[in-house]
Design brief:
The protein has 7 helices and 4 strands; from the N terminus they run H-H-H-H-H-E-H-E-H-E-E. With 245 residues, the chain is an alpha+beta fold. Helix 1 runs antiparallel to helix 5 and helix 3 crosses helix 5.
């Protein structure tokens, strides 16, 4: 048989094999790409969750420890101070672990002085004394912020970090407020100044925010040790209060 005839037949056979197997090869490639993308997305998602947990943990510990100490007899500022020290230890530990992961040595005094202490101090002062105007219904409501129990203020500032659109619609009240709103006077409300001199309740806007978002906010306050109640006074809102000891 002539060589050119054999070469032609081999070329024809090659084309037939390629034609037959090309779709299968493409299908395998697509499957591999999809699997790789799923694994990549899953890995990125898990890494994001871990990073979020590391960032959020000190703040959550700060709030939860403050509530716990207060409900077990500590004065508000003492509870906040002790919780801040605990948070300082957690942040310092995280910084040291991260430094070691990158094969860098970091002494505890250096970490505390130049990394953990500035972060924790700045956050504690910010959380206890400041609430942006965009997170308050009006200046009249914001005027009561300094009268709110410091522990409740810390909890509000913490949730605002992850929910910057949260709006406080009410804080402190007096009896005249109920008559102005057309509601019966409630002498047991935590919106009044309590015996310790602090207001123990705030109302948060729920309208136009979505059911899941509102539930997450309610779950946060409940898990931190606050009492929560979704109810309607003048409008649908989430009532959050710190129990009086």
């Amino acid at each position: 048989m002539p060589a050119d005839s054999i070469a032609a037949k081999l070329e024809k056979l090659k084309r037939e094999v390629i034609h037959e197997w090309q779709p299968r090869i493409q299908s395998v490639r697509r499957s591999v790409k999809r699997a790789w993308r799923r694994e990549t997305v899953a890995a990125l998602f898990l890494a994001s969750l871990k990073a979020l947990a590391l960032v959020a943990l000190p703040f959550l510990v700060y709030v939860r420890a403050s509530v716990y100490l207060y409900r077990h007899g500590a004065r508000p500022w003492i509870a906040i101070l002790v919780s801040a020290i605990l948070t300082l230890g957690i942040v310092s530990g995280f910084v040291i672990l991260i430094a070691r992961r990158f094969r860098r040595r970091a002494g505890v005094p250096t970490v505390v002085k130049w990394a953990a202490l500035p972060v924790v101090f700045t956050w504690c002062v910010y959380a206890a004394f400041y609430l942006s105007r965009v997170n308050v219904k009006s200046d009249a409501v914001r005027a009561y912020y300094s009268a709110v129990n410091p522990i409740l203020r810390v909890a509000l500032s913490t949730i605002v970090l992850v929910d910057p659109d949260l709006v406080v619609t009410d804080m402190g009240r007096v009896r005249a407020n109920y008559r102005r709103m057309g509601l019966p006077v409630n002498d047991r409300t935590k919106h009044y100044r309590q015996r310790d001199g602090w207001v123990h309740a705030v109302d948060l806007r729920t309208r136009g925010r979505g059911a899941i978002r509102n539930r997450v906010v309610q779950l946060y306050f409940w898990s931190m040790g606050f009492s929560t109640l979704r109810h309607v006074g003048t409008a649908d809102h989430l009532h959050v209060q710190l129990a009086t000891r």
